[in-house]
Specification:
The chain is an alpha/beta fold. Helix content is 36%, strand content 13%. It has two domains: 133 residues, Aspartate Aminotransferase, domain 1, CATH 3.90.1150.10; 249 residues, Aspartate Aminotransferase, domain 2, CATH 3.40.640.10. The structure holds pyridoxal-5'-phosphate (PLP). The site of pyridoxal-5'-phosphate (PLP) has 13 residues, from helix 5 and helix 6.
């Protein structure tokens, strides 16, 4: 990228952008620069159409028949295969169901059940907190398991990988810093140590070219309401590699995971494949909304998406450092492409207030305690010009110090 970017050079990048037309598939409020697709993706127009059909026709008119006629019952596995297309998983290995938190519990239990003699679970101290809370809860429910954390019980995952480690739970992209792990290399090292891996893809599914099968991953989980744009509270997913499906057991043995749910038998018998990772009845309106949202991914090449994502984050970092120098902003996201997800974080002593002032001016990112301004870059609907304009507004917020207005200091429940 040339030294001096101008609005014209940035517009020229948009003119050449092969993903530019995808923005039309989304509802983006007028004048908003939305840099929070890593928290809640905007609505694909196709999602609204699917939700409308599900509510008015399938529920409103066809009622109970829709379990068969609209394919409601098959949705978890049908959508799972579609999520697989975005994450490098061949068919029959992903179920869309429940929440990420619940799926972490199922994946940890199943992985631990495959390594019964190994009593240690390893996770990252900097994980998204729900991963740690669920791991704590799971470990507490088992008589002799313990949890060890990178950054607490050892400096690196490598250092913690002893003969007693059965499962390692990792966040593919860190939710605060945006740091990306090398999935293939880490999975290999964990396997060499005799353990299994559970990858949390919440900040990578739909954001970069994830290759679950190629990386020989054992288990993975992720949500669909962030980069996949499935809607608030959209169901999550769980990936279980084919080779583990026959042996892996999960403890939430509800009727949807039974081999014959409609035989209404007295005893549980797990379904033979990925279906055993289902628990109970799923939120069909959310499922159908997600089904519509996935239509917006048709024709998207994930490698191209990744190229634009890196170009957007490169541009953002460069422009912040050039145009907002001297305002106490510190980059916490790796500069190296191989170590960067699709978001950028800067610390600032008044990050909360600065973010509130930005949001008031329609530049929507988010704040992560205690001091991070977090910006997500989603190549399907964010343009290079959006990045330029966001920086101009950030610069103005800092130069005028309008973030000091008292209204920006009031803390909301959700940041
Ligand atoms: C967003 C996120 C979650 C969210 O879990 P829910 O059960 O959907 O609330 C979990 N893990 C990571 C890494 C996340 O970024």
């Amino acid at each position: 990228m040339s030294q001096d970017m101008t609005l014209e050079t940035v517009r020229a990048l948009d003119a050449k952008d092969s993903l530019r037309a995808f923005r039309e598939r989304f509802v983006i409020p007028d004048n908003m620069i939305y840099l929070d697709g890593n928290s809640l993706g905007p609505a694909p127009k196709s999602a609204f159409a699917a939700l409308d059909r599900a509510a008015n026709v399938e529920w409103g008119q066809d009622l109970i028949r829709s379990w068969n006629s609209a394919g409601w019952f098959e949705l978890p596995l049908r959508l799972g295969d579609k999520v697989g297309e975005l994450t490098g998983a061949s068919a029959g290995q992903i179920a869309v169901c429940d929440s990420t938190s619940i799926n972490i519990f199922k994946a940890l239990s199943a992985a631990a059940s495959l390594r019964p003699d190994r009593k240690v679970i390893v996770a990252e101290g900097t994980s998204f907190p729900t991963d740690l809370y669920i791991a704590e809860g799971f470990v507490a429910s088992q008589p002799d398991l313990t949890l060890k954390l990178e950054g607490v019980d050892g400096d690196t995952i490598e250092e913690l990988l002893g003969p007693d480690v059965g499962v390692v739970l990792l966040n593919h992209v860190n939710y605060r810093s945006g740091r990306l792990h090398d999935m293939k290399a880490l999975t290999r090292r964990i396997h060499e140590a005799g353990a299994l891996v559970v990858w949390d893809l919440c900040h990578s599914a739909g954001a970069l070219d994830v290759q679950l099968d190629d990386c020989d991953v054992d288990f993975a989980v992720g949500c669909t309401y962030k980069y996949i744009n499935g809607g608030p509270g959209a169901p999550a997913f769980i990936y279980v590699a084919k080779r583990h499906q026959a042996e892996a057991r999960q403890p939430l043995s509800g009727w949807w995971g039974h081999v014959r749910p409609f035989a209404f038998e007295q005893q549980y018998e797990a379904a033979p494949a990925i279906a055993r990772f289902l628990c109970g009845t799923q939120p069909i309106l959310s499922m159908q909304t997600l089904s519509g949202a996935l239509e917006a991914w048709q024709g998207v090449n994930m490698a191209n998406l990744r190229v634009k994502s890196l170009a957007l984050t490169d541009l953002f970092i460069k422009l912040v450092e050039e145009r907002c120098a001297g305002f106490d902003l510190q980059l916490i996201t790796p500069r190296n492409h191989n170590e960067r997800g699709s978001q950028v974080g800067f610390t600032h002593p008044h990050a909360y207030e600065v973010m509130q002032a930005l949001i008031a001016d329609q530049v929507v990112g988010d704040f992560r305690a205690p001091d991070v301004l977090r910006f997500g870059f989603t190549p399907l609907y964010v343009s290079y010009e959006d990045v330029w304009n966001a920086i101009e507004i950030l610069r103005d917020v800092l130069v005028t110090e309008r973030w000091k207005e008292p209204r920006f200091a009031t803390q909301n429940a959700v940041t």
